[in-house]
């Protein structure tokens, strides 16, 4: 099974206009960016991500960690975590990423997995932003 090829074919067939990047397969849905990562060491590992949904700074880091923890404990198979990325000038930016992670069987039905993973990631983003607002209001 080549899950990466299956994913690329599925996304193209569904009209997502996927393209390869150094990070994996990138595509957009509802104006949001998504990335599919292939794990070379685990053919059955399926990870779809929403990158950089919120910027982390020294001022908001504690609040972000609290909101991430709340979301991580309430939404199935979705994890929020911080990711550090460095640009070509060496400047490091930290942001919150949302990940949908499962182990697919040897004949995955991407018509079932992908729409649900996108919906869960979009829901996690909304829940995270809502929780941030609640924490800030207190």
Q: Explain this structure to me?
A:
The chain has 138 residues and is an alpha+beta fold. It has one domain: Yope Regulator, Chain: A (2-Layer Sandwich). 37% of the residues lie in helices and 35% in strands. The protein has helices at residues 3-13, 61-72, 110-137; strands spanning 19-21, 24-29, 32-37, 45-56, 78-86, 92-103. It has a six-stranded antiparallel β-sheet with strand order 1-2-3-4-6-5. Helix 2 crosses helix 3 (110-137). The relative contact order is 0.19.
Question: What attributes characterize this protein structure?
Answer:
138 residues; alpha+beta; Yope Regulator, Chain: A; six-stranded antiparallel β-sheet; 3 helices
Q: What's the layout of helices and strands?
A:
Elements: H1 3-13, E1 19-21, E2 24-29, E3 32-37, E4 45-56, H2 61-72, E5 78-86, E6 92-103, H3 110-137
Antiparallel strand pairs: 1-2, 2-3, 3-4, 4-6, 5-6
Output the CATH topology. Yope Regulator, Chain: A
- In DSSP terms, counting alpha (H) and pi (I) runs of 4 or more, how many helices? 3
**What count of structural domains?**
1
CATH architecture: 2-Layer Sandwich
């Amino acid at each position: 099974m080549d899950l990466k090829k299956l994913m690329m074919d599925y996304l193209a067939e569904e009209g997502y206009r996927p393209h390869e990047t150094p990070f994996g397969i990138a595509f957009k849905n509802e104006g949001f960016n998504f990335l599919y990562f292939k794990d070379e060491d685990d053919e059955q590992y399926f990870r779809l991500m929403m990158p950089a949904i919120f910027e982390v700074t020294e001022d908001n880091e504690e609040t972000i960690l609290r909101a991430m923890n709340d979301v991580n404990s309430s939404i199935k198979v979705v994890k929020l975590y911080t990711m550090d990325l460095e640009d070509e000038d060496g400047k490091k930016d930290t942001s919150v990423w949302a990940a949908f992670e499962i182990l697919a069987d040897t004949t995955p039905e991407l018509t079932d997995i992908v729409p649900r993973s996108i919906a869960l990631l979009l829901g996690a983003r909304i829940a995270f932003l809502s929780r941030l607002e609640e924490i800030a209001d207190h």
